[in-house]
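Appendix C reproduces, verbatim, an entry submitted by the partner laboratory led by Prof. M.T., so that reviewers can inspect both the input and the predicted structure.
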Amino acid sequence: MHVTSKREKLQYAYVFITDLLTLTVSIVLAWLITDGLLNVIVPYEPRDWMQTISLVFLSFVATFFCFDQDENIATRSLGREFRLSVKFNILLGLIYSAFMLLTKATMLDSRYFAVMVPTVNMLLLPLAHTALKKLLLHFQRSWGMESLVGIVTTDDRAEQLIAEISRDWSRRIVGIALLEGTPEVVGSQLYGVDVKATFTDFMDWIRREALDEVYVDVPMDSSESFIPYLEEMESMGLTVHFHLPLLDRIEEACCDETSAARMSRSLGRSAGGNIVTMGTVELKLHDQLAKRCMDIVGALVGCIISIPIIAIVAIPLKLESPGPLFFKQKRVGRNGRYFYIHKLRSMYIDAEERKKELMAQNEMNGLMFKMEDDPRVTKVGKFIRKTSIDELPQFFDVLRGDMSLVGTRPPTVDEYKQYESHHKRRLSMKPGITGLWQVSGRSNIEDFEEVVKLDVTYIDNWSLWNDVKILFKTVYVVFAGRGAK
């Protein structure tokens, strides 16, 4: 479970207000440029302007909701701010255009204004964020929103802990207690922080110092003897953060750097005792909603486009190979759930029976089956596979919620039964029509472990923006004739 910190709550509000004000300025500047300077906007009624501006602000809220706002804004470089601004305003422009089309707004033909608003906002947003960062860092003390932090640790553990806390603009380190230090170190500085106490007097310092939070990082062999001190700190009403070396050892044994960063950790109670829960981080609620909304909109558009194409392809497909038009197969989805995937039938009806005799010619190293000139594929089937037309019925699977537009390739039941433990990690997200594997030269990949690696990379680095990029790449791959063989 992700617990929202004080910094995240405050930052979410500050960034939202800053971005909203920036958008307001961008709208005014866009109007001055297009109407006053360039004189390219025809006269509109006040109600038309109200409708358009309302849609712009609605698009802003939808776009803001799609982006992860938890990242500490104070640590972001100007270059990253510009990159985020480009992504934000491209999505803003797309959502705004969609709203204008859906509502048939009067100002739909005013393309100059529609382009100018996100363009101006794209330039202003990084500057606004830079100003916000300076305000946050400069005025945090006078605004009284900072948390006063004390650290209790040893010399060898101090540097990383100080660096980590210092990056949080909502916290200020007021001192550190070095447990193994001698009285002479008191009054000196360690990595820019005042040393206030040693083991002999650190509790006296905590009792008299103005503190909101205390970070405790001590060697594992000291943990048991430290319990009375932790109890006293808690009794003072302080928020106490203490290090769990056992959890570090578990991560070192079972996780690489990327998956450890994506792991959630929460403390709970079960059977009268405390338990630590570890697991892969699930998408946050707003990310899940944004992804599902994109799936529904994309699937609806896909279904509308697919119906006439399927109707045209159905005639030669049925003439060449009598049998059902659609191929339904049981597949394995998120975390081992079963569902049925639908495709246009590209093979003869006895394809599954003939697969066993062709396994010796499998060109794939691992659990997937792939063959260059598969005799089970019909002539029309080769065409619809090359153009990915056979995948079109999966838009209906997306609409049903069994699949997503972007995800990982769902394995067959036979493949899944042969999975090793690390293979199942690629099923920790809902399967998709397309994915990182499909746009990374899927016809040239001959090792199943490489497919797993690409799928895990997609899961560990998921973002809505990455989904959008994969969708655009998929369109390019299809039209460039680089579909499945």
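DSSP finds 16 helices and twelve strands in the chain. Additional entries are available on request from the coordinating office.
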